[in-house]
Amino acid sequence: PHVQREIELNRDVGIRMNKTVSSATRQAGGLENLTWIEKDVRNHLDKVRIYELQGGDAHAMLSF
After folding, report:
1. DSSP sequence for 1-64
2. What are phi and psi of 21, to 5 degrees?
3. Positive/negative CA dihedral, 28, 2, 41, 37
């Protein structure tokens, strides 16, 4: 949950996903210490985007 929120916050302020993954990797002390992979981050952001666009809200769609 904490990592997911950090990923979402970074996306909201315009930090690219690869920079978020790189930062988390450094904080964890290497890739072997992470419990997720970059694809998991992409999947999470896609899930959040779909949730935010539910109902066909044009304003939400324009924000992406």
Report:
1. -HHHHHHHHHHHTT--HHHHHHHHHHHHTSGGG-SS-HHHHHHHHHHHHHHHTTT--HHHHHT-
2. -65, -45
3. positive
pLDDT one digit per residue (tens) for the chain, 64 residues: 688 899 999 999 999 999 999 999 999 999 999 988 899 999 999 998 888 777 666 666 676 6
CA distance 37 to 56: 30
Query: What whole-number distance in Å separates Cα of residue 52 and Cα of residue 30?
Result: 32
Which sign does the torsion angle of CA 2, 6, 29, 25 carry?
positive
